C-alpha cells in the first residue's frame, strides 16, 4: 500500500520470519553463538527461551541455514504431538522410508539405524524443535529417551529446544529433573533496548530499499521502543501501522502522532497513558480505504 510512496521495494515489517532481514542484534547474535558452540562440542540438549515475539523462530531458521555441511538437521516446527506422532515426525525429517505396518518399537530401531548411519558418514544429527512449550509431558519424556542413543564416544542425536518461558516453568517440575539435567547450554532472549530498536527499524527499512534521511522521527522511535517493550514482533506491527498512517496523510515521514495512533490501535502495546488523538486509527484507515476505492473506480 505505501511501498511506492516511501520508495520501498518490499514490505519492511512483515510478521513472517525472514532471515533476509536478520540484523546482528546483541541478544540474537549471543543466542546463535551459544547454539553453534554447543552443537559443535556435541552436547545433548540445548535450550533457547524467550517471550512471544522476541525472535526465536528467526534465530531457529538462521541457525538451520548456517549449520556446517557436516550437520544433518531434522526440523519440527509444531511439536504439539503425542510420543508416537513425534517419532513419526522425526523419522520423516530423517528421510526414513517405512511402511504403515511398522510399530513403535520397529520405528525406534529404524531411527537408531539412521542415526548410526549418519554418524558413520561423518554427519552430526541435530533435531531442532520450535514452540517446544507445546510438547505434552509424555512427548518431552520421549524426547529425552532419544538422547540415550549414543556410541562410546559421542551422542547420536543433539536436540535444540526453542520455546516460550512456560517451557522453563515446566522443566522446573521434579518429574522433568532427568531432562533438565541433560540441558547443558541454555539462553534466555531479552527485549531490545531503545538504541537497538532504532537500529532494527532503520535496518529493515534499508533492506526494503529505503534511502534518505531517517524515516521515523527521534521522538516517534522513542515512543515505539517504549510501547513495544523492545519486542521485535510488536516493533514490526507498530512500524507497519505508523507507516500506513503517515501514508494516509500524504506525509513523507513518520511523526509522533502516527506512532501514537499505531500504539492506540494495538492491544499489546501501551504507554500506560494515551493523550487524545484528533483522528483515530480506525477512522483514518476508513478514509484511506475509501480514497483508494475512489481512485481505482475513478469516482
Describe this entry's structure for a reader.
- It is built from twelve helices and five strands.
- With about 300 residues, the protein is of the alpha/beta class.
- A five-stranded parallel beta sheet has the order 2-3-4-1-5.
- Helix 5 (about 135-145) links the parallel strand 3 (about 125-130) and strand 4.
- Helix 3 crosses helix 5 (about 135-145) and helix 10 (about 230-250) crosses helix 11 (about 255-265).
- The longest helix is centred in the middle third of the chain and has 17 residues, at about 105-120.
- The two termini are about 20 Å apart.
- About 35% of the residues are buried.
What attributes characterize this protein structure?
299 residues, alpha/beta, five-stranded parallel sheet, disordered C terminus
Class computed from helices, strands and strand pairing: alpha/beta
Radius of gyration: 23 Å
Strand count, sense and closure of the main sheet?
5 strands, parallel
Name the poorly predicted regions: 273-283, 289-299
Number of strands: 5
Helical content class: 40-55%
Q: Which H/E pattern describes the elements?
A: HEHEHHEHEHHEHHHHH
Return the average pLDDT rounded to an integer. 88
Shape: elongated
Q: Could you tell me how far the N terminus lies from the C terminus, measured between alpha carbons in angstroms?
A: 20 Å
Q: Helix segment count?
A: 12
Instruction: Tell me the β content.
Output: 5-15%
Strand order of the largest sheet: 2-3-4-1-5
Amino acid at each position: 500500500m505505501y511501498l511506492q510512496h516511501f520508495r520501498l521495494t518490499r514490505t519492511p515489517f512483515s510478521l513472517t520470519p525472514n532471515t533476509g532481514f536478520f540484523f546482528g542484534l546483541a541478544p540474537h547474535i549471543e543466542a546463535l553463538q551459544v547454539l553453534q558452540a554447543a552443537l559443535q562440542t556435541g552436547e545433548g540438549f540445548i535450550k533457547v527461551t524467550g517471550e512471544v515475539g522476541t525472535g526465536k523462530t528467526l534465530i531457529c531458521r538462521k541457525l538451520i541455514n548456517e549449520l556446517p555441511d557436516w550437520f544433518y538437521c531434522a526440523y519440527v516446527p509444531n511439536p504439539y504431538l503425542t510420543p508416537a506422532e513425534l517419532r513419526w515426525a522425526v523419522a520423516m525429517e530423517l528421510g526414513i522410508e517405512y511402511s504403515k505396518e511398522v510399530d513403535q518399537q520397529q520405528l525406534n530401531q529404524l531411527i537408531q539405524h539412521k542415526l548410526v548411519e549418519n554418524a558413520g558418514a561423518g554427519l552430526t544429527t541435530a533435531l531442532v524443535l520450535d514452540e517446544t512449550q507445546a510438547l505434552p509431558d509424555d512427548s518431552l519424556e520421549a524426547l529425552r529417551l532419544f538422547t540415550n542413543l549414543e556410541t562410546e564416544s559421542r551422542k547420536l542425536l543433539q536436540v535444540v529446544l526453542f520455546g516460550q518461558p512456560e517451557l522453563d516453568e515446566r522443566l522446573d517440575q521434579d518429574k522433568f529433573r532427568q531432562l533438565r539435567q541433560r540441558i547443558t547450554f541454555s539462553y534466555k532472549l531479552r527485549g531490545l533496548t531503545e538504541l537497538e530498536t532504532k537500529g532494527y527499524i532503520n535496518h529493515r527499512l534499508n533492506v526494503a530499499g529505503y534511502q534518505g534521511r531517517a524515516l521515523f522521527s527521534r521522538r516517534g522511535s522513542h515512543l515505539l521502543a517504549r510501547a513495544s517493550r523492545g519486542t521485535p514482533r510488536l516493533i514490526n506491527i507498530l512500524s507497519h501501522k505508523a507507516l500506513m498512517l503517515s501514508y494516509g496523510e500524504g506525509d513523507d515521514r513518520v511523526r509522533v502522532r502516527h506512532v501514537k495512533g499505531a500504539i492506540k490501535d494495538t492491544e499489546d502495546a501501551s504507554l500506560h497513558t494515551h493523550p487524545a488523538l484528533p483522528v483515530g486509527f480506525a477512522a483514518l484507515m476508513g478514509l484511506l480505504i475509501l480514497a483508494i476505492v475512489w481512485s481505482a473506480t475513478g469516482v
